[in-house]
Design goal:
The complex is a heterodimer of chains A (about 325) and B (about 325). In chain A, helix 4 runs parallel beside helix 7. In chain A, strands 6-7-8-3-9-10-12-11 form an eight-stranded mixed sheet, with helices on both faces. Chain A has a four-stranded antiparallel sheet with strand order 2-1-4-5. Chain A has 13 helices and twelve strands. Chain A has two domains: about 220 residues, P-loop containing nucleotide triphosphate hydrolases (Rossmann fold, 3-Layer(aba) Sandwich); about 90 residues, no CATH class. The termini of chain B are close together. Chain B has 13 helices and no strands. Chain B has a single domain, classed as MetI-like fold, CATH 1.10.3720.10. With about 325 residues, chain B is mostly helical. The chains are: A alpha/beta (about 325), B mainly alpha (about 325).
Chain lengths: ~325, ~325
């Protein structure tokens, strides 16, 4: 199957006063039609920069290398005008923090329908409005007619996120990028919003990049997972593979730090990954995770040689030098 | 929302009452109208006669009564826009004030119109072109504008436009530096008026444009880096529409409030400009009356400027809530 979106060797750097900051480092992945790819990593791991690069919304001073292909066509280096026709129509984005991401001085309905009107100027105002009401209804906002003319601050947090979703699916895009869509929400509202996203995705048969630091969200919604650390991908595979047979020490650390009801013991503290993520200005020569890794090799292999992504199975790869022998190393240490 | 404004308006009444009493008490304390009747007066004037004249003068000006009583009758007239008679010219204070106000209003009106348009344009342009040469140039100019005293600018500009430039070009002077009209002319839709207006309005606007455009630039930059502008771009909204519909609309909100408050201050603050360009406006009337010891005019002037500041603060509140829907309900 042809991938819908194909990212090859994407590197994004930002010049700063302290030197060149590498936000995304040699990242490659594909997104296939209809699938949901979960992109997991902590703050600063390059998740959001990747999505901004795909939409062509990085600031001008960003230095972008590599290739991003959508339906086979190269996006890197396109002028803003060409990207504009793509944005919101073929590739759309659901942002986190809907309160900040919606314009406070425009009515919600107008903001949703703007996404339609800019791509279909020939539509009449009434047609656009009808479609806007349909969308509000689709994402489960009660009384769409009243809600259409309200301002974002009159919505609750969950409703704002729904409005955000309505805006992003207005043109039934082939690719939906959801950047931490549930971060700012209560757990019960999170579940509702994820349910709306799943329903919409099924309806429009779009592909989705689900960016999150919440493994629980990915486990429920994604088909495949890409784990990022310090701008690099450390592991990728089907959800079950990554969850049950994690082949990278960082993924193992993440999973071990999840609170689990079934293995809870009284007084037991949650596992944590010791240390801090590295500065993106001074990345280690070898594996970026080395300083925090409990499996790291004393021979200096981890610290000095940059690990390539290699296959653990046909669908599962890891960029750990010792991906195949992690279990035995764990026993030894 | 209406209730909010009625409440806000009612709040300003005690503010004005207290303010007006302070104004009246302080102005009364600055100058005694009988002062120049006292003092050495040559040998043969009878002391009792002097006392009688002083008493008559005090009765004429009403200063023989207790201060509170004077205040009560003054403020009672003031709310009906009757500020009594001038001590110097025997005109009513009101008629002198309104004539002067008309002239000042022309300066302020044109000044604000030009300042608002240019400030917004410069601010938006600088923000969009942040850190380019034109941005640095405009930033540099606005620092000069803020730092330059208006009277100095007025003198330099007059010198240049009235003497240097006409001499250089070998033409007659094409701008005037005295009053608003040449003798025998009037009206506001003619070249003569424009020729008189350019320099005073420029003097008035330079500092205002410099500070408002800086403000607009900062506000625009903040909005341009906001999440909702990114959302608009992610929707595929064209650049121009993002700029005007999403960014400028929001960036104007803080500027409009600053403008309203600054405009309120302007009504009392054109003293230097009017003095330099011999425009018989409020500022000039104030300085003249102060030197003459014409207390009723001074008191009315100070009260009026206070009223304008209160009114424009109200307008600032009102504009803010009109422009920002988040304020409307709370």
């Amino acid at each position: 199957m042809e991938p819908l979106l194909e990212v090859r060797n994407l590197t994004v750097r930002f010049p700063t006063d302290d030197g060149l900051l590498t936000a995304v480092d040699d990242l490659s992945f594909e997104l296939f039609p209809g699938e949901t790819l979960g992109i997991v990593g902590e703050s600063g791991s390059g998740k959001s920069v990747t999505s901004m690069a795909i939409l062509g919304l990085l600031p001008k001073y960003a230095r972008i290398q590599g290739s991003i292909r959508f339906r086979g066509e190269e996006l890197v280096g396109r002028v803003d005008q060409e990207m504009r026709n793509l944005r919101g129509r073929h590739i759309a984005m659901i942002f986190q923090d809907a309160l900040a991401s919606l314009n406070p001085v425009h009515r919600v309905g107008a903001q949703i329908t703007e996404a339609i009107a800019v791509h279909a100027p020939e539509l009449s105002d009434t047609a656009v409005r009808t479609r806007g009401l349909e969308l509000l209804n689709l994402v489960g906002i009660p009384n769409p007619v009243d809600r259409y003319d309200q301002y974002p601050h009159e919505y609750s947090g969950g409703m704002r996120q729904r409005a955000m979703i309505a805006m992003s699916i207005a043109n039934e895009p082939e690719v939906l990028i959801a950047d931490e869509p549930t971060t700012a929400l209560d757990v019960t509202i999170q579940a509702q919003v994820m349910e709306v996203i799943a329903r919409i995705q099924q309806r429009t048969n779009s592909s989705m990049m689900l960016i999150t630091h919440d493994l629980g969200v990915v486990a429920g919604a994604a088909d495949r997972i890409l784990v990022m650390y310090a701008g690099r991908q450390v592991e990728t595979g089907l959800v079950d593979e990554v969850f049950y047979r994690p082949a990278h020490p960082y993924t193992r650390g993440l999973l071990a730090s999840l609170p689990r009801l079934d293995r809870r013991r009284e007084g037991q503290r949650l596992e944590r990954i010791a240390g801090q993520p590295p500065s993106l200005l001074h990345l280690p020569a070898g594996c970026a995770f080395t300083p925090r890794c409990r499996y790291a090799d004393a021979s200096g292999m981890c610290g000095n040689r940059r690990p390539e992504l290699h296959e653990v199975s046909a669908t599962h790869s890891s960029s750990c030098h010792f991906a195949d022998s992690l279990d035995s190393r764990a026993d030894a240490s | 929302m209406l209730a909010f404004f009625i409440r806000r308006t009612l709040y300003s009444i005690p503010v004005l009452l207290v303010g007006s009493f302070l104004v009246f008490a302080m102005v009364s304390a600055t100058f005694d109208p009988t002062d120049d009747l006292r003092g050495p007066r040559g040998g043969n004037v009878d002391a009792a006669e002097i006392e009688r004249v002083i008493q008559a003068e005090r009765e004429r000006t009403g200063t023989d009564r207790p201060l509170v009583e004077q205040y009560a009758s003054w403020i009672g007239g003031a709310v009906r826009l009757d500020f009594g008679d001038s001590w110097e010219t025997r005109d009513t204070v009101g008629s002198r004030l309104w004539r002067a106000f008309g002239n000042t209003l022309q300066l302020i009106g044109w000044g604000i119109l030009i300042s608002a348009v240019l400030s917004v344009a410069i601010g938006v342009y600088s923000a969009v072109r942040q850190y380019t040469i034109s941005d640095y140039l405009l930033t540099g100019l606005s620092y000069i504008g803020i730092a330059m005293p208006p009277f100095w600018f007025a003198l330099l500009a007059s010198q240049f436009m009235i003497f240097t430039l006409p001499n250089l070009l070998g033409t007659d002077k094409f701008l005037f530096i005295s009053g608003l009209h040449s003798p025998g002319k009037s009206g506001i839709f003619n070249l003569d008026y424009l020729q008189h207006l350019v320099l005073p309005v420029a003097t008035l606007t330079v500092q205002i444009i410099a500070s408002w455009s800086r403000f607009q630039r900062a506000s625009m930059l903040e909005v341009l880096s906001s999440d909702y502008v990114r959302t608009a771009r992610a929707k595929g909204v064209p650049r121009r529409q993002v700029l005007y519909r999403h960014a400028l609309r929001n960036a104007l909100i803080p500027l409009v409030t600053v403008m309203a408050i600054d405009i309120g201050l302007l009504f009392g603050g054109l003293i230097i400009t009017e003095q330099i360009f011999s425009i018989p406006g409020m500022g000039r009337l104030f300085i003249g009356s102060l030197l003459d010891g014409d207390n009723p005019v001074v008191a009315a002037y100070v009260l009026l400027t206070a009223v304008f500041i209160v009114i424009f603060n109200l307008i600032a509140d009102f504009m803010y809530s009109v422009l920002d829907p988040r304020i409307r309900l709370s």
